[in-house]
Amino acid sequence: MIQYLLAVKKVKNMNLRVRPDGSVHVSVSRRVPKTAADDFVRSRANWIAARLAERAAGPGPLAPPDREAALPVLRASLERMWPLVEPLGVKKPELKARFMTSRWGSCHWTRGIIVLNTALTVVPQELLDYVTLHELVHFLHPNHGAGFYAAMDRLLPEWRVRRSALRSYTLAR
């Protein structure tokens, strides 16, 4: 039996997360009965077990590095990855850095800004570069639709391997 925390909120789909601390969280809309949430968690038991095993085997939580020390490392990644999207019409974005507890990066495509997590400075360079390119591709495709993944496949064919490797790292809370 898997224990989980259930949140009833305004969501379209049932959502499942395994947090860095190993807790399992499920979000459902008001119209979904608790039995459906139980069935949903049971149907994803193998996936949950795999995420918990990854977390246990990972290098442990990453502490928040100093922002000023992180900026040159993050900027170097932007310089390596931007030439891949420049021919597609992407202008070089403004780079911001901050420690985030639940994501590696974000793209504010309407304002021309990407934000990279300072914790990326302590992961292998190829993982940092994957996140940087992921955020840059959002200037071409703002969502995670088929076009986004097709662009990632063209620009960095091994991106799925890198994403999988990045999942072994957790962020300190």
TrEMBL record:
Superkingdom as given in the UniProt entry: Bacteria
InterPro entries reported for this sequence: UTP_pyrophosphatase-like (IPR053136), YgjP-like_metallopeptidase (IPR002725)
GO terms classed as biological process: proteolysis
YgjP-like metallopeptidase domain sequence ranges: 12-57, 85-168
UniProt-recorded Gene Ontology molecular function terms: metallopeptidase activity
Record keywords: Hydrolase, Metalloprotease, Protease
Name of the protein described by the UniProt record: Zinc metalloprotease
The species this protein was found in: Intestinimonas butyriciproducens
